[in-house]
Amino acid sequence: MQTVLPYIISGISVGGQYALIAIGYTMVYGILRLINFAHGDVFMVAGLIMVYLAASLPLYVAIPLVILLTVLLGFTIERVAYKPLRTAPRMSVMISAIGVSYLLQNLALYITGGLNKNYPQIPWISDRISILGMETTRVTVITPFLTILLVVLLVLLINHTKIGMAMRAVSLDFEVSQLMGVQINTVISVTFVIGTFLAAVGSILFFTNYPGVVPTSGAMPGLKAFVAAVFGGIGSIPGAVIGAFIIGIAESIIKGLDTILIVNGAITEQIGLATFSDAFTFVLLIIILVFKPTGLFGEKTADKV
Amino acid sequence: MLKIKDLHVSYGGIHALRGIDLEVPDGKIVTLIGANGAGKSTALRTISGLVKAESGSITYDGKELLGQPIYKILEMGIAMVPEGRRILTNLTVLENLKIGAYLRKDKAGIERDIQWVYSLFPRLQERSWQLGGTLSGGEQQMLAVGRALMSRPKLMMMDEPSLGLAPLVVRDIFEIIKEINRQGVTVLLIEQNANMALKTADYGYVLETGQITLTGTGRELLANEAVKKAYLGE
User: Fold this and answer.
1) Size of interface A-B (CB pairs under 8 A)
2) All domains in chain B, ordered by first residue
3) Domain A5-118+135-291 CATH class label
4) Does residue A265 contact residue A47 with C-beta atoms inside 8 Å?
């Protein structure tokens, strides 16, 4: 157990970061039935904005500004690339999302020249601390708590406020929501604002643990978060969060599997099981799609006709 | 008063309404009857702003409705009970009522109107915490009507409220329509159940392939030979 524990703790942390991205996928899907392929790249752009802002501004200015600019980016993408296609077939919107994804990646490539940009050290949260007898960074410990706090706030917003009620209504029936006076474009914008806000927070937590940002930095975490959302049942927020934690923990354990097995005497030398940590996520995706396409908490249908 | 003049609407590549004229006087029940595909739903959907018209005009108390966003039309006092009820199945009964009052800001008034709707439909109060999707067809229709009433409309449009309901429930629904009308709400009703509709309505219009072919009081239409043959199955 003592050998597995550190991997579980770091897995919970990674899972929290995935969860913050996954909520953006799942909420947008819930309302627009759109898989927002640009979401992972927005996450990467948030990382780059931080790199450039932190170079000239103090962190207490840079961090809120990163969040604000990322939210603005998410809002703008929706208005420019998705809103004009509101009545178009769903496939067109998806292709538009793929276009935005490549656009962001290539803009990032143009601006950075494809070089790794060092992510700024954020004092306090990147400090090394010792917990349960092991060394880690403070961000690892903070991430899951912050994630859960944000998720609880989000669920309260969705279940107990007027805009939350409108979001639930729009996710079920555009037309009836409009007939009730709900302006769906406002609701959709709010959804994107929330989704990108969480992705921006996630990016700060995520990149702090990594050396830097490159234009493709958003791809893998984006994909993992997407799998988490599908695993949990796309459209379901609790599902996405649970899916993200499961994937984060499983990945982290697989990364440490060689060491764990050596310590337990099952094998005598490294056999490279860590290589399979990404593969695991995607095998999981295939299994879910084959056996339970609606995921853990897939859309309940209470329709009675 | 709602006034439609020479309204043309194309919908899904079909010229669904070919110049209809229609009036709904305040305080009355007006019904629009016709076969499937005659354009009845299109007419209501155009009034509510869901469908764009090609030409013509729809005025309400002298103000043009065409070109207005859907929520503005609702704000002017025109609410719709859509075809098939379209209850928000993932919201509770109470939330379904609250979303009917989405544009209103007067909290006390909303609370009062929820009680008013509950007094009209006691069944809804018993089930206020249930999800909309768990209600029976008749209860869903009551909820759909209650939800529309929550915007405090002056004119309520109903699209086939009797569709798919048991005969006894249909009778209840028509009783409710009369009751709502007695409380001062003008009703524009479209129905395939021409018999019930014409008995309930003050005025009726017959719509055939996008054109109004007959108008008259409900009683006149009930006695009309052509209507009897085509819609009353006599």
Assistant:
1) 77
2) 2-231 (3.40.50.300)
3) mainly alpha
4) no
